[in-house]
Structures are given as structure tokens and as C-alpha cells.
Design brief:
Blueprint: E1 5-10, E2 16-21, E3 26-30, E4 36-40, E5 47-52, E6 59-64, E7 68-73, E8 78-84, E9 86-87, E10 91-92, E11 95-100, E12 107-111, E13 116-119, E14 135-136, E15 143-145, E16 151-153, E17 168-169, H1 178-181, E18 198-203, E19 209-215, H2 219-224, H3 230-254
Antiparallel strand pairs: 1-2, 2-3, 3-4, 5-6, 6-7, 7-8, 9-10, 11-12, 12-13, 14-17, 15-16, 18-19
């Protein structure tokens, strides 16, 4: 097998570079000479998360699809701490992302089952207000490309960055109560009726029909024709005018005489 690099990260003072390779090894290099210093062994699957400590240049965190989270001393090439993301009754959960807190005393990880894992010192009570499983209802939704090759959300035909803030759902796509929806940036001050998503029935890959979030706008917004923002309204108006101009140009081109018959009108 030809090794491939899946992730790369510099340490805090840029003296070392750590690369994750698809043979499950982490390699520590001297960033000035390019010399290989250490092979870090421990992961059993590909690693896509490498995070350096915010102020300790010795510390590097790695996490991967095997559910393992390691904290390494890269100057010595040794393992400082190890966590395994075991989920009761479901095996392990692949770790997709990790970040240190600014003070370096905590780090948070997200996994494939919608869990937010917080490691550190102190009491966990401040974090008990969040649900166990958290996904945005737009996660893993298919995308398409329009005639200009721009990316659009397949369901709403909107550019992803112009879509309203998504709803929080569990792993099955069921929306969380309104008190959790206010935790989503952009929905902090919404009225309760605007925090209730539209639901519909969709078929899963197993053929099972489940109830899931299918829309982002409320009935009130649809009836009143409200725009998410003034800027969104201007963008839509400009797009509409551009589409009309293109349609008019195509229409005039199609009405021009063919095979040189007649005299074309001067534009």
C-alpha cells in the first residue's frame, strides 16, 4: 500500500510537524530539517483530527474513526492520555472533530452519533442543558449544481449560505423542543412559533418511513412571504432580473431568421 497523508498540523511553536498517514501511524517531523523524529502508534483506523495545544508546544491531540482520542507528548514521542468513545449498545463512535478551549484546560469532540464529548476539569452541570444527540437537520442533505455550476441545496434550491439557520434534531431526524432550538446561532430571539419546524414523512435507505424535518420556514412566513433578511430579498430580486434578461435574450435569439433568410434586426 502506498501511504497517503490524511491530516497535517504544526505544533504551537512551529518546531514540529505532525502528519497522519492512512496506515494509522502519526509521524513527528522536525519542521526545519525535515527529519523524522517519532512514529506515534495507537490508532487502529484513519485519523482526520490533529489539534495542537493552545500554549504548550509539547502537546498534540489526535482522534480518528476508530473512536480513539490520544493526547501525545510529541517531543518525547509518548502517549500522555487515551480515551475511547464507546457507546453502550452501539459499539464505538468515530470522532469527527476536536478543539481545545482557549485556556487549554478543556477540549470538546463531536462523533458520528451526534454526541458532544467534553473533557476537562470541574463539574459537568453547565453542559446538562444540551440534548444527548445533536445534528442540524441539513446535515448530510444532498447538493446539486445549477446551470452556472453553483452549489444549491437539492430540497430548497437555495445556496447553502443563504438558507435560514437550521433546526436541531436527534439522530433519527426528530426535532428537539423549542428551548434547544434557541441554542442555534440566529434563533436566539425567535418567537416560539418560528422555532417549530415543518415535518414530513421520508423513506430511509432501509425502506422505513420516518417523520423528519423537511422545511425551514414556518407557515406564517410562507403565508406572509417574509424574507429571512433584506439582503436575501435583494439577492433574490437580482437573480430574478438576471433570469428574465437571459430568457429574453434566448427568446430573441430563437426568433432570428435561420439560413440567412430575411434581414436580422439591428440590436
Amino acid at each position: 500500500m502506498k501511504p497517503k497523508v490524511t491530516m497535517i498540523a504544526w505544533n504551537q511553536n512551529d518546531n514540529y510537524v505532525v502528519t497522519a498517514v492512512n496506515n494509522h501511524l502519526l509521524k513527528v517531523w522536525n519542521s526545519c530539517t525535515g527529519q523524522l523524529l517519532h512514529d506515534l502508534v495507537g490508532h487502529a483506523d484513519e485519523v482526520f483530527v490533529l489539534e495542537t495545544h493552545p500554549f504548550d508546544s509539547r502537546i498534540m491531540l489526535s482522534a480518528g474513526h476508530d473512536g480513539n482520542i490520544f493526547i501525545w507528548d510529541i517531543t518525547k514521542g509518548t502517549k500522555t492520555k487515551h480515551y475511547f468513545n464507546m457507546i453502550e449498545g452501539q459499539g464505538h463512535g468515530a470522532v469527527f472533530d476536536c478543539k481545545f478551549s482557549p485556556d487549554g484546560q478543556h477540549f470538546a469532540c463531536t462523533d458520528s452519533h451526534g454526541h458532544l464529548l467534553i473533557f476537562g476539569f470541574g463539574c459537568s452541570r453547565p453542559y446538562e442543558k444540551i440534548p444527548d444527540q445533536m445534528f442540524f437537520h441539513t446535515d448530510y442533505r444532498p447538493l446539486i449544481r445549477d446551470s452556472n455550476n453553483y452549489v444549491l441545496d437539492e430540497q430548497t434550491q437555495q445556496a447553502p449560505h443563504l438558507m435560514p439557520p437550521p433546526f436541531l434534531v436527534d439522530v433519527d431526524g426528530n426535532p428537539h423542543p423549542t428551548r434547544y432550538q434557541r441554542l442555534v446561532p440566529g434563533r436566539e430571539n425567535c418567537a416560539d412559533e418560528h422555532l417549530i419546524p415543518q415535518l414530513g414523512y421520508v423513506a430511509t435507505s432501509d425502506g422505513e418511513v420516518v417523520e423528519q424535518v423537511i422545511g425551514q420556514q414556518t407557515v406564517d412566513q410562507d403565508e406572509q412571504g417574509l424574507e429571512p433578511s433584506i439582503l436575501d430579498g435583494m439577492i433574490r430580486q437580482l437573480q430574478l432580473e438576471q433570469d428574465q434578461r437571459i430568457g429574453a435574450d434566448q427568446e430573441s435569439a430563437s426568433s432570428a431568421p435561420q439560413n440567412g433568410e430575411g434581414t436580422p434586426r439591428r440590436g
